[in-house]
Design goal:
The complex is a heterodimer. Chain A is an alpha/beta fold. Chain A contains 19 helices and eleven strands. A five-stranded mixed beta sheet of chain A has the order 8-7-11-9-10. A four-stranded parallel beta sheet of chain A has the order 3-2-1-4, sandwiched between helices. Chain A is globular. The mean pLDDT of chain A is about 90. By secondary structure, chain B is α+β, with helices and mostly antiparallel strands. Among the domains of chain B are: about 90 residues, Roll (Ubiquitin-like (UB roll)), CATH 3.10.20; about 80 residues, no CATH class. Chain B has seven helices and 14 strands. In chain B, strands 2-1-5-3-4 form a five-stranded mixed beta sheet, with helices on both faces. In chain B, strands 13-12-11-14 form a four-stranded antiparallel beta sheet. In chain B, strands 6-7-10 form a three-stranded antiparallel beta sheet. In chain B, strand 6 and strand 7 form a beta hairpin. The model of chain B has no long low-confidence stretch (mean pLDDT about 85). The chains are: A alpha/beta, B alpha+beta. At the A-B interface, helix 15, helix 16 and helix 17 of A face helix 2 of B.
């Protein structure tokens, strides 16, 4: 049984209320930080813990905090990125829905460390009911003196607001999020300047994922060094994984980083194996934008070592044979899945969500979707595979924000690892007519 | 001061200069093409990605190369920075990709487009485009709309450079147009087909790199290369009054701002000068306008013609002396 730090109390009745949450040791980190530590101590603890951003990129949080510019007389902001729109990722929703105070506690502690008087939780529009839960929790916190003026009798004052977004995937990108929060169109900004220098309303801003902020509380309570002992190497602590797809027990699991992927998929404690005893075909390990890996490469890396659920192990082998931990949206596909159709669905998503600001992503995502549509409809041409490859290569790295990369990587990896399936689709147009969503190459080949 | 090397050419520039500006100071073939950057407009650039270059050495202090190609128009130079543009096949390849993306949904209706001849996308297509398209789907189309009495908008031709939006933001009082929708369905529009009505609205025609915004008083009057550009001025209370007149015979076919060799206007002009003073009597003509680089207009231009005449004169002279 792995250690749980974030959602260990999720089954406690009424844990969403302040009273129950405090009975289970809630808001202790606020008390500890505000009364016995300086802001720098908190930052140091987070640095020592080796906590890395849980939103996808995995940038060390302590380092991000220490980059924050601190000019005199200028407000600083903490913004929580709760715009969890990556397909296959739903860990933040689970955390906010079940234990909203865990996030608010983290917001207060982190704001104290950063010296932010105001913080915002930018939550996606589809999570409207979660925003209500958060707002109720914030109200409770205000009433208990945990938010507002002179928190717990100290001279630290803090206000926290929930802002509901319009439901655009692009607003999960930190600078697009800030634009949207300012009331503008959610287009990513051109960096530099980074938000740590000029973010919200031109002031220094830190944008962190929900899980990252919530993880600050256990770090303060147990100490950075203790937290760093969990996990493997530079991947420390625990991580929420949203498991979905063809598994027996889909859901949100908190794992210690370093758990073998094989154990995660097949152990009864976690996913519980593939549904109906079928065979594993492929896994997208970190949300839809990371490369898809076939079964043989996800369980073991190209050197034959077992793959672990860590930032490093999953990305071993680069993009040729590796993938990324990303946001922890763990999608499992069994042998009946059509990778081509799956890719078409993803391409359609990225086409729909492209903001239209820079040319490669605006035009390229639509182009890729059209070609994939043609292939799944049985009108594909043999040259289409190479064309798709060429388009994704020209999008990747040439865009303002990572959405271009996110749209390119799934296409690249699907072609890299499942080229035969694309060829099957193109060479057998008559067979793929009237097929259901789940349809594998094996069935296509005549079984 | 910072020393930057672009394709082997070194130059010392002031801190805060962008790679593109430094390249323009050096001049020549190493200047990256731009579609959305406009030096007169703040925060412009970074969207079209045609100006991408590779930074092979970050700076003297931090010599690591930048991992991805960067937009040269928005990246400031550091001391000791080394940049590759046309010497890197990778950059040229990426740029070809960007040009292809810009062209896949462009109607390529140059034969009936007023911008033809002074269109940046045309130049870019000639320099970096493929001879044949690989895009075999229907192209995106929009209806043509009149925004006000003077300006026609062909959204189909637009490449989303945001220059007109920034112009309206920065040189006029109230911006009434912007971007609607998102992704490849996004369009520049006034939302409820409102007219763009202010004294400087005509400048959005000048900043448009393609034929998406055209002058309704000039539409289908003449191909630009058949007109003669002249520098002219008048006393104007609203703007500097310094313009370029495009003449055919003694008719003023259109009036634009004076564009420098990068296709950017030197000074923004007002609508009165642009649309209402269509008579040579309104203007004091200074002389023929120098047209640099880019655009086929220069091919038909005085200087080359004059040179030709001179050559003919010389030859005639030579012939006559031979006799």
């Amino acid at each position: 049984m792995g250690k749980k730090l974030l959602i260990h109390n999720d089954k406690v009745p009424n844990i969403h209320t302040l009273q129950v949450y405090r009975e289970h040791g809630g808001y202790a980190s606020v008390e500890k930080a505000l009364k016995s530590m300086t802001p720098n101590d908190v930052v140091e603890e987070v640095k020592k813990s080796g906590l890395r951003g849980r939103g996808g990129a995995g940038f060390p949080t302590g380092m991000k905090w220490s980059f924050l510019a601190k000019p005199e007389g200028v407000e600083r902001y903490l913004v929580c990125n709760a715009d969890e729109s990556e397909p296959g990722t739903f860990k933040d929703r689970y955390l906010m829905e079940k234990i909203p105070h865990a996030l608010i506690e983290g917001m207060i502690t982190s704001s104290f460390a950063l010296g932010a008087k105001t913080s915002y939780i930018y939550i996606r529009g589809e999570y409207f009911y979660v925003a209500r839960i958060l707002e109720a929790a914030i109200e409770e916190a205000y009433a208990a003196g945990l938010l507002g003026k002179n928190i717990l009798g100290t001279d630290f004052s803090h206000d926290c607001y929930v802002q509901v977004g319009g439901g655009a995937y692009i607003c999960g990108e930190e600078t697009a999020l800030l634009e949207s929060l300012e009331g503008k169109r959610g287009n990513p900004r051109i960096k530099p300047p980074f938000p740590a220098i000029a973010g919200l309303y031109g002031c220094p801003t830190v944008v962190n994922n929900v899980e990252t902020i919530a993880a600050v509380c256990p770090i303060i309570m147990m100490g950075g060094d203790e937290y760093a002992k969990i996990g493997v190497g530079r991947s420390t602590g625990t991580k929420l994984i949203s498991a979905s797809g063809h598994i027996n027990k889909p859901g949100v699991y908190e794992i210690e980083l370093g758990l073998p992927v094989e154990e995660f998929i097949y152990s009864d404690e976690y996913c519980g194996g593939i549904i109906n005893g079928r065979k594993l075909k492929a896994v997208i390990a970190g949300g839809s934008s990371v490369p898809v890996l076939p079964a043989e490469l996800i369980l073991k890396n190209d050197k034959g070592e077992p793959r672990l659920m860590t930032y490093e192990s999953l990305s071993e082998g680069g993009f040729a044979t590796g993938t990324m931990l990303g946001s922890g949206g763990f999608m499992v596909y069994d042998e009946t899945t059509s990778i081509v159709k799956n890719l078409y669905t993803l391409a359609r998503f990225y086409h729909h969500e492209s903001c239209g600001q820079c040319s490669p992503c605006r035009e390229g995502t639509g182009w890729m979707e059209k070609i994939l549509h043609r292939i799944v409809e049985g009108h594909g041409k043999p040259s289409d595979i190479d064309l798709l490859w060429d388009i994704q290569r020209k999008i990747e790295g040439n865009t303002i924000c990572p959405l271009g990369d996110a749209a390119a990587w799934p296409v690249a990896s699907a072609i890299r690892h499942f080229r035969a399936e694309f060829e099957e689709y193109i060479n057998n147009p008559s067979k793929i007519k009237d097929v259901k969503h789940y349809y594998s190459v094996n069935q296509l080949a005549g079984a | 001061m910072a020393k930057v090397t672009i394709d082997g050419h070194s130059i010392e520039v002031a801190d805060g200069t962008t790679i593109l500006q430094a390249a323009r100071m050096i001049g020549g073939d190493i200047v990256p093409p731009t579609m959305c950057y406009y030096s007169k407009l703040k925060t412009s650039g970074g969207y079209c990605r045609t100006c991408i270059v590779k930074v092979t050495k970050g700076s003297e202090k931090d010599p690591r190369p930048m991992p991805k190609p960067v937009a040269s128009c928005r990246t400031t130079v550091m001391d000791g920075m080394e940049v590759v543009n046309i010497t890197s096949p990778e950059v040229l390849e990426a740029r070809r990709g960007v040009v292809e993306f810009l062209l896949i949904n462009h109607p390529l209706d140059c034969p009936i487009c007023d911008q033809a001849g002074e269109c940046h996308l045309q130049d870019l297509g000639y320099e970096h485009g493929l001879a044949k398209t690989r895009y075999d789907f229907p192209r995106r189309t929009f209806n043509t709309i009149d925004i006000g009495p003077y300006i026609k908008m062909h959204m189909t031709r637009c490449i989303m450079c945001f220059r007109c939006v920034k112009t309206a933001d920065q040189i006029t009082d109230y911006r009434v147009h912007g971007m609607l929708n998102r992704g490849d369905a996004s369009e520049i529009s006034t939302y409820i087909q409102k007219a763009i009505d202010n004294d400087f609205s005509g400048n959005i025609i000048d900043v448009c790199p393609v034929g998406a915004l055209t002058d309704r008083t000039f539409r289908f009057k003449s191909r630009v290369w058949f007109t003669k550009p002249m520098d002219a001025h008048r006393n104007c209370t609203k703007c500097s009054g310094k313009v370029a007149l495009w003449l055919k015979g003694n008719d003023v076919l259109r009036v634009t701002g004076r564009k420098d060799k990068w296709g950017e206007v030197e000074e923004f002009i007002c609508n009165e000068c642009r649309f209402e003073k269509k008579d040579v009597k309104d203007w004091t003509i200074e002389g023929p306008r120098h047209i640099d680089r880019h655009s086929v207009i220069s091919a038909n231009h005085y200087e080359s013609l004059a040179k030709l005449k001179l050559d003919i004169g010389k030859q005639q002279k030579a012939l006559s002396t031979k006799k």
